[in-house]
Amino acid sequence: MKTFERLDQPTPISDYFGELTFGLAQMREKLPKEAYLNLVKSLDQGKKLTSETADAIATAIKEWAVQKGATHFCHWFQPMTGLTAEKHDAFISIQHSYHSEIRVMERFTGTQLIQGEPDASSFPSGGMRSTFEARGYTAWDPSSPLFIIEGVRGHTLCIPTVFFGYHGEALDNKTPLLRSNQALSKEACEFLKLLGDVDVKSVTATLGAEQEYFLLDRELARQRPDLVLTGRTLLGAPSSRGQQLEDHYFGSIPNRVKEFMEDLEFEAYRLGIPLKTRHNEVAPSQFELAPIFESANIAADHNTLLMETLKRVAYQHEMVCLIHEKPFAGINGSGKHCNWSICNDKGENLLEPGNTPHQNLRFLAMIAVVLKAVYRHAAVLRASIASAGNDHRLGANEAPPAIISVFLGELLEKILTNIEKGVASQATEAQIIHLGVGHIPDISKDYTDRNRTSPFAFTGNKFEFRAVGASANVSVPVAIVNAAVAEMFQQATQDLQALLAKKPGSRDEAVMELIRAYTSESKAIRFAGNNYSEAWQKEAKERGLPVLPRTPEAVSTMKNPKATEFLTKMKVLTEPEIHARYHIAVERYNKTISIELATLRDLVQGHVLPALETQLKEVLDFKDALTQPEAKSRCQGRVTELESLYGNLLATLGSLSSTLSEIESGKSEEEMMTILADVAIPLSVELRQLCDQTEMTIADKHWPLPKYRELLFSHALS
Ligand code: ADP
Ligand code: MG
Q1: Of 348, 462, 463, 481, best ligand 1 pocket probe by most atoms within 8 Å of the beta carbon
Q2: Which residues pair with 86 in a beta bridge?
Q3: Measured between alpha carbons, how far is 349 from 361 in angstroms, rounded to an integer?
Q4: DSSP β-bridge partners for residue 104
Q5: What φ, ψ does residue 323 adopt, rounded to 5°?
Q6: Is the Cβ–Cβ distance between 388 and 592 less than 8 Å?
Q7: Which residue, 3, 217, 277, 676, is the most exposed by fewest CB within 10 angstroms?
Q8: d(C-alpha 599, C-alpha 174), whole Å
Q9: 18-32 pLDDT, tens per residue?
């Protein structure tokens, strides 16, 4: 195990924060003035960089990176596999001299910085690319800082890029996010101008993604083929102690994990990722990190980088980090709460109630627009978080379910209800907590209450999209939220113009009218009760909200042109891109589930059955040796139990295997998805139950896999 070096004198974080990054601040310092100004201009006005500027920037970047120890550079991008991809090139170039001696030198050009051409044929394109157009391109995104990943012999400079095809079709998750940011800014500005913020120049989506994860001992995890191959356990009887003591959440962090976290944070800070809080989560061995929010694009890059860093640092500490949505049955799963807001170019949070009547009117208008956007696009929002992994969380009794609804909190709910009724209401009554202890000052209550069961909750100055899965690339759901809200801003601009034309001169009244209309039209999306209850499933249906419990139903929304029209209208995705993403979602679901089922089959054949056979033989031999008739007959009971388990295991395994062969025999992707979801998964649940029963029945020494108890409580004594 890596020994944790105790620093004599820990240094302040600000001393090393971002030391492995090269962003706008470093460029201002290191670039020739003109090159820097050209870069800023191109960022502000969306103009292309000239090749001279690009070369100047490349030279400054190379000097910085080489001096930091970088030997290679790579275009870092986020293909639709959900992971990140990188192809490394060395900085060296060779000069041949007259006597054919070669001279090696570090070189890096503007073109190498700006553009790359990784072979795109091995990345999913959802059928958008035919083989003769297998080319794919990466292009530098100058708004996101470059960063260095340290290696053993040399480091790699990573250049955040977008990834697209020959005709400009997006092949990644970042491009739609950037497009949605643009649409949101444009449409929000138009609306805000009409509202009276005449000098607003841009609007930015902000994002703080809270990341949940599990940390396990690596040696134990390695002995579980299911963890190695699928990132989650496919079988495992419950541990006698699970999470019922509820002592883990915010409990004291185990020593081994604390050392990991300190190292992780050190790495994250050097990479410019502003982590703020760390704590234990609800389940044993489950933890959470929350960063300070940033603009959505940078926050999304940082979250992907954080997931990679979590895995890398865990490895150094001889642990593994599981970012799967449901690594253990019966134990809480992991989510990634996406805190989302919008702010203007003055840095004002538009979802924060203000001090002036104008600011408060603006705030309520923003809320009304978001409510109606979520209401109208609930199905696509649900689709944006659909994955085989997240299906285990959604709908279970632990995470926001598969019905999108919005929780506003009592006070805001009251204000909106009063507006709908046409009654004026006192906006922000001061709410104070009196503890009744003399020397402890009264504090003001966060004026929103919380609802941990809500998938999309207002938390005072932002919305928290809680239904996102832990392993998701946040660019996907955030792009959809942005697009939905952008479209609603466009609509709101038109509607407000119409209202103003009717009643010229009384803008505030027109805005109030708009708020009233939008909140009452979208009323069905507001829900303050328990989202986990069965009653809500029924009520949601009655309200006409989409109820999409599993990935197959959720992603089929993307086949409905009416549901996805806003994405083309806002230029976030073209029709072929939407179509492609639908196919990739189906294919990923099928592949994930197929791998899980094949792994389960192998586990049963290779581990569970042989263990049971050994046990059975042992009991049979033992029974033969018994002399007392009563003991013998009781022992026969045990034989019968084991034999019946054995028979059931073989039968269910047989059914699962034949379902798997049926799928392999030339079914279409959609047919395959249906069979997997409707037949194979239920069979695997049955098979798992039999395995877990076996695990509980047979001797510890015969069970060949680390148990839940060992996996989940490996930190208990640390
Ligand atoms: P709370 O206690 O209300 O959940 P925190 O301040 O702990 O809020 O923040 C939770 C997460 O929300 C953090 O990751 C934080 O950065 C993020 N967050 C806070 N304000 C915003 C905002 N305006 N936009 C986006 N994310 C935000
Ligand atoms: Mg949490």
Answers
A1: 462
A2: 76
A3: 14
A4: 94
A5: -110, 15
A6: yes
A7: 3
A8: 32
A9: 999 999 999 999 999
For residue 205, report the distance from its CA to the centre of ligand 1, in Å: 13
DSSP code for 677: I
pLDDT of amino acid 49: 87
Which of ligand 1's atoms lies nearest the C-alpha of 339? Answer: 26
Residues whose CB is less than 8 angstroms from the CB of residue 372 and which lie 6 or more positions away in sequence, other chains included = 488, 491, 518, 519, 521, 522
How far is 709 from 697, CA to CA, in rounded Å? 16
Confidence of residue 462 (pLDDT cuts 50, 70, 90): very high
Q: How far apart are the C-alpha atoms of 274 and 302, rounded to whole Å? A: 9
CA 665 – CA 151 distance, rounded (Å)? 45
Atom from ligand 1 closest to the CA of residue 209 = 14
Atom 22 in ligand 1: which residue has the minimum CA distance? 341
Give 650-656 contacts, CB < 8 A, sequence gap 24+. 650/609, 652/683, 652/686, 652/687, 652/690, 653/601, 653/604, 653/605, 653/609, 653/687, 655/683, 656/597, 656/600, 656/601, 656/680, 656/683, 656/684, 656/687
Distance of alpha carbon 456 from alpha carbon 448, whole angstroms: 14
pLDDT of residue 427: 44
Residue position matching structure tokens 């805001």: 412
Domains of the chain with bracketed CATH: 13-169 (3.10.20.70), 173-210+335-573 (no CATH), 211-334+574-718 (1.20.120.1560)
- Residue 566 Cα, ligand 1 centroid: separation in angstroms? 28
What span, in angstroms and rounded, lies between the C-alpha atoms of 231 and 322? 6
CA dist 121 and 530 (Å) reads 46
What average pLDDT does range 137-152 have in this prediction? 92
Angle, helix 507-521 to helix 410-421, in steps of 10 degrees:
110
Give the span between the Cα atoms of 386 and 399, in whole angstroms.
Answer: 14
Distance CA 125, CA 216 (A): 34
| Ligand 1 atom at minimal distance to the Cα of residue 292 | 16
Query: pLDDT tens digits for 101-121?
Result: 777 888 899 899 988 887 777
CB crowding 623-649: b at 16 or more within 10 Å, else e: beeeeeeeeeeebeebeeebeebbebb
Using the atom order of ligand 1, give the atom closest to the CA of residue 349. 23
pTM of the model: 0.94
Q: Which ligand is nearest to the CA of 204?
A: 1
CB-based pocket (< 6 A), ligand 1: 206-208, 210, 290-293, 339-341, 349, 459-462
Q: Which ligand is nearest to the CA of 340?
A: 1
Read off φ and ψ for residue 538, nearest 5 degrees: -70, -45
Span from the CA of 502 to the centroid of ligand 2 (angstroms): 47
Nearest-atom index, ligand 1, CA of 446: 3
